Amino acid sequence: MIFKEHNQLRGLVYLNFPKKMQGGFTLLETMVAIAILLIAVVGPISLIGGAPSKVYFVRDQAIAVNLAQEGIEVVRQKRDTNLLVGGSTAWDSGFGTGDCTSGGYQCLVDVNPLNITRCNGACGAGDNTRVYQSSSDLLYHQYVSSPTGTPTNFRRVMSTNKVNNNEYTVIVNVTWTTGNIPGSITVSESIFNWTE
User: Fold this and answer.
1) Where is the chain membrane-spanning (predicted)?
2) 3-class SS of residue 6
């Protein structure tokens, strides 16, 4: 029961609470409040804790997709150059039958200078599949003979499958590791002899 007292001198009303209602929080109430606060704070922090590694993996995945597409573009440019030169140069010279076909042959793609090099089934040995970053133009390159850039954690190989005399399927595989998480991207596209 709450009692009201009226102070005549100041015109104020005081509320007097019974002794039972004047106490603070009990130890149990405090512990429950702390537990609720911890659950509310620790949950989101644990979700945020794994975010940086996922962001780095997605960044590397985007780079890998670009490297794989770059491999396709190198083959497309080689095809176009062969067709424009014409004469005795076959349209599939440098990437077709006997070059990068899937019978154990894979190729390394270099864009500075533009080059497709067959690795005779030994693409997985050593660092010859590693992609390097050039210090001069900050683009990703793969130097086959003597690496001169900064090594990245990306590896790229390319192979082709002959569908018919006027079509090849080009397959580019890029692998990498972000932290302890391995990644792999494979891009495939058909390349045609557009003069036939």
Assistant:
1) 25-49
2) strand
Largest CA distance in the chain: 118
Q: According to the model, what pLDDT value does residue 69 have?
A: 92
The Cα angle at residue 78 between residues 75 and 83, in degrees rounded to 5 = 125
Q: Do 89 and 35 reside in the same domain of the chain?
A: no
Give burial (CB, 10 Å; 0-12/13-18/19+) of 44. Answer: exposed
3-class secondary-structure state, position 23: coil
56 domain residue, yes or no = no
For residues 21 and 75, state if they share a domain. Answer: no
Structure tokens at 4: 């009201």
Structure confidence by residue, pLDDT tens digits, 26-73: 788 888 888 888 888 877 777 676 677 788 899 999 999 999 998 899
Structural domain boundaries enclosing 36: 3-49
Same domain, 37 and 75: no
What DSSP string runs through 136-193? TT--EE--SSS--SEEEEEEEEEEEEEEETTEEEEEEEEEEEETTEEEEEEEEEEEE-
Q: Give the span between the Cα atoms of 79 and 96, in whole angstroms.
A: 10
> Three-state SS for 104?
coil
Q: Which residues pair with 174 in a beta bridge?
A: 156, 185
- My answer on whether 109 and 40 are in the same domain is no
